[in-house]
Every structure is written in C-alpha cells, then in structure tokens.
Amino acid sequence: MITSEDLRFFSVIARSGSVAAAARRLGVTPSAAGQRLAALEQRVGVRLADRDRRGLRLTDEGRLLADRAAPLVTEIDDLSDALAARREEVGGHLHVVASLGFGRRHVAPLAARFREHYPAVTLDLTLTAARVPAAAYDLWVHIGELRETSLVGRRLAPNDRWLVAAPAYLADAGTPAAPVDLVDHAPLVLRENEEDTSLWRFTRDGREDAVRVTPALASNDGEVLRTWALDGLGMMVRSEWHVADDVRAGRLVRVLPEYTLPPADVTALLGSRRGRSARTQAFLDLLLDALDPAPWRGSEGVGNSKEPSARPALPEAPTSSCRRGRA
C-alpha cells in the first residue's frame, strides 16, 4: 500500500538526482533515505531507481510513480488547504526557491520565522544559482531581469547594480573617468546562468556605453567576488543589496556613480492568485513587509543601508585619468 507520505518522499527522490541530495532536502541521513527507498520498492514489488556512484536514475516504473505522484501530492496539499481554511489555519507544504546569496541573507531568516508562526506548514527552501529552478516550486524569489513571461511576478524591492572597488585598489590603479577606461583595470566577473557577464552596459543621459571587459578573476560565487574586491584585487559589478553595507562603511567605493547599470529588482514569481495556496500568500505577505523599505537602502539615499529595525510582523491571516592597472 502506498501512502501520501510515500508519494511525497518519492517526489523528493525523483527531483533530487541522488539519495544524498534527497536526504539533505528531507533532513535525514543518506542511509535513512536509502533504507526508506528500499522499503518502498519492496512494498510495491518493483525497482523504482537504479543507484550508482554517478547518482540516481529512475526506472520506467519509477518515472511512472513520479509522474503520477506529483499531481496527487498537489491535490492532497490543496485539500489540506481547503480544510485548513475552514479552521482559519495555514498549513500544508511550501516550497520556496531563492538565489544562493540573497537567499542566505534575506530569505532563510524569514523562512525560519514563518515556520515558527505557522507550525502546521512544512517548508522547503532551495537555494540555487540556476536561472530556472529544476523542480516545481510555490514561490521563487528572483533577482534580475524577468524572461519567463508566463510567470506571475510581484516586485518585492528595488535593487540597482553598482560598479565598486576597494579604496586601496583605486589608490594603486587609479579611478576611471569613463567606462572606456575600464580596459586598463582588473575586472572581477561573476559567471552565472550562461549569461554574458563580461559585457558591462553603462547608461548616462539616455546614452548607453557598453564595454567588453577581460576578467582578471572570475567565479560563479558572488561572495568570492566580494572577498576579492575587499582585498583590493580589482573592481566588480554587484547588486546593491550585496555591497551597500560595504559602501556605507567605506570598505568599498562606488566607481562611475554618475552612470547607471541595468537594475536587478527583487521579484516574487508564483502562480496566479486563483488557486494560490494560503501558505504561499502568507509567505508573500511576509516578504513584502520585510523588504519594504529595502533593508539595503537608507533614508539618506543610495549607498546607505538602513539601521537595523524591528523584525517585520507576520500576517495574522493569509489575506579619467587613470594609470595602468592590474590587468
């Protein structure tokens, strides 16, 4: 006999790619997840997945179960929501996706508080560098340009991109007076989502000035770039949310502040309001409250982050002249 918990468990297995990854999502040890999978296979009488050192591959029977399980789990959650609504209670399972850095700093603390306030909700927070999440989700906290026009987006907070460098780097390499001067500097470039991140597009007075830079250092981790910049190894383009505190404290300096770069606003992507679960709406309300005003923006303008304030309340109900640089 297959239970609803079996369906939910195998749905996690199917989208994780390995028993170890599934175990991390489930909050159990890999051996416990493997034993549970083996027990499920024994009960249904067929092998559901082949496991080896490269990961996990679903068999035909496993794919059948995964395909059938996903809508059934959704139906069960919807039924739970409907019953909870009769009791004026928020419950069920919520899957939130966010980018690695922003998710760690801003979404994870809110997820923990949300769970404290709504103990009937189980919450799965997936942090990823992918442009499009690999698995189904209820709410995706997205940074940057929206390209999936089929998704419903709700703007959570403004977020500009800045060119920044450490004072020590600028003292040594000089301060560029215009984007063209960047060819004499050491760009630090973030490699992500197969995007063309070495083409920096500046705008001033309605005129775009695009510069192709040759990375002195590159990484797929924004925190690594920030560390390099703080160490005086070059200049980088980063989101305002990530470096505003450093600029305010003088650890980093904005370069070419009279120019603007394409913004990277923070947006919640989710399904239409019709059919949206109470738990999803409640988490969206919490995000809107926590990010308005944007924590990285101060009352005195761009470049200042506001002083720590009281934690946002949870909703009670879901309702040049430049010298040759280090190239």
From TrEMBL:
PROSITE patterns in the record: HTH_LYSR (PS50931)
Matches recorded under Pfam families: HTH_1, LysR_substrate
Domain (HTH lysR-type) ranges: 2-59
Region called Disordered, residue ranges: 297-327
PANTHER family xref list: HTH-TYPE TRANSCRIPTIONAL ACTIVATOR TTDR-RELATED (PTHR30537:SF5), HTH-TYPE TRANSCRIPTIONAL REGULATOR (PTHR30537)
Annotated family: Belongs to the LysR transcriptional regulatory family.
Protein name as it appears in the record: HTH lysR-type domain-containing protein
Record organism: Rubrivirga marina
Lineage of producing organism: Bacteria, Pseudomonadati, Rhodothermota, Rhodothermia, Rhodothermales
